[in-house]
Amino acid sequence: MYSVNYVLFSYCSEHLVSGLVSIIFCLSVGFDILNGRIFLKRPVSRTVVLGALAGVLGLALVFANDIAHTKASSGLVTGVLLGLGATLLFSFGNIASSWNQSSGGLPVVQSTAWSMLYGGLFTTIGCLIAGNSFTVEPSFRYVAGLVYLSVCGSAIAFVTYLTLLSRIGPDRAAFATVAFPVVSLSLSTVFEDYRWSALSVLGVLVVLAANAVILAGPQLRALLGRLFPGLAAREAAGPAEERQAVPESGPGRG
Question: The pTM is what?
Answer without folding.
Answer: 0.79
